[in-house]
Amino acid sequence: MIIVLKSGASDAEVEDVCHRITAMGYSPHTIRGALRTVIGAVGDDRGKDALRSLESLECVESVTPILKPYKLASREVRDEPTQIRVGDVTIGGRSLVVMAGPCSVESRPQLLEAAEKVKAAGARILRGGAFKPRTSPYAFQGLEDEGLKLLAEAKRETGLPIVTEVMEPDKVDLVAEHADILQVGARNVQNFSLLKRVGDAGKPVLLKRGMATTIQEWLLSAEYVLARGNPNVILCERGIRTFEASTRYTLDLNAVPVVKKLSHLPIFVDPSHGTGHWEFVEAMAMAGVAAGADGLIIEVHPRPEEALSDGPQSLKPERFAALMERVRRIARAMDRDL
Ligand code: PEP
Ligand code: MN
After folding, report:
1. Which residue has the higher pLDDT, 67 or 215?
2. In terms of CATH, what superfamily is 84-333?
3. Residue list, ligand 1 pocket, CB within 6 Å
């Protein structure tokens, strides 16, 4: 249920309503908008009639059901776009944010070179996987703890915040020590115990869409994180499985305006996994921005031919710099900057 407070409601009144909601067995999530405060009461639908009694309070304007199955992620609860601060970067604001770096952290020189070069081209966040979800158990699985240390070093050297994947609930605390943003990969989008743990970790979460996940299922996955009290979820469209075999996945750019309509959460596009081929990455990066994405995540490797994962879709640093120039022009046409 959504409890909309009257515009002059005081902090004490907000607190009182929250206490009453808690006493009825619901979790209150307070969302302070520019005009008024709204409290989402989230919990078992069966007791929702009790919540209606809150309408009799002086400070309450209305009590209405949230119709969407995802509650806190929906525009019904919050209409203003969510903005997320990571260091001095704001995600979901007027400026687009590009996250870039190698698919996997492979070595100190590889990561540091990639980090320096993506920074010089205008990336604001460094990506790099230390724990890798590989289809084959014989493929490179990532440098794991050593990879996290290298990411921390690259952050010290460049000042770029880090986004890196966490695959297991038991590793969330360890990864959160080094990462500024926890990435939940496509293969784990419905790993509900992982979603609960990243919800508890207090760090922003980059939640990739699963390759066979509907937008509604994906928003319900975001809801798992939000329901734990972590409002900082960034959605990322990275391609879905279709019958089309010329590209690795089919980048579903429809998802960008659909998510914008349904949710206040920022949405990114990943044209690297979405296409699987470096020569298509620039076109789909530009298309993602033209569709209204809040940012991009792009794989860049100093020597893609030597990459231990996702070489065919990784851009050389010079190509990434050229892409940034072209994306900047699209951003301007969209009334945004980069
Ligand atoms: C990645 O970012 O390298 C990755 C594994 O992404 P996804 O989960 O989208 O496949
Ligand atoms: Mn990859």
Report:
1. 215
2. Aldolase class I (3.20.20.70)
3. 103, 129, 133, 185-187, 208, 238, 273
Residue 317 CB neighbours (<10 A): 19
Secondary-structure percent of the chain, ordered helix, strand, coil, rounded to 5? 40, 20, 40
> Residue 94 C-alpha to ligand 1 middle, in angstroms?
26
What is the pLDDT, as a whole number, of residue 3?
94
Q: And the tokens for 103?
A: 């698919």
- 255 close to 209: Cβ distance less than 8 angstroms: yes
Using CA atoms, how far residue 329 sits from 95, 180, 229, 251, 326, in Å, is: 13, 28, 37, 21, 5
| 133 CA: nearest ligand 1 atom | 5
Which atom of ligand 1 approaches the CA of 238 most closely?
Answer: 9
Contact criterion met (CB below 8 Å) for 295 and 268: yes
Q: Which residue has the higher pLDDT, 8 or 285?
A: 285
Report which bound ligand comes closest to the CA of 189.
1
Tokens matching residue 216 = 């509604």
pTM equals: 0.95
Dist. CA 272–CA 129, nearest whole Å: 14
Fold of 2-64: Alpha-Beta Plaits (3.30.70)
Q: Which atom of ligand 1 is nearest to the CA of 104?
A: 3
User: Ligand 1 pocket check: which of 183, 184, 236 to mutate, most ligand atoms within 8 Å of Cβ?
Assistant: 183
Q: Determine contact, residues 294/97, Cβ cutoff 8 Å.
A: yes
Nearest residue to 196 via CA among 163, 162, 226, 164: 226
Residue nearest to atom 10 of ligand 1 (CA): 186
Contact assessment for residue 337 and residue 96, using Cβ atoms and an 8 Å cutoff:
yes
In tens, the pLDDT along 120-144 reads: 999 999 999 999 999 999 999 999 9
Q: Whose CA is nearest to atom 3 of ligand 1?
A: 103
Query: Domain limits of the chain?
Result: 2-64, 84-333
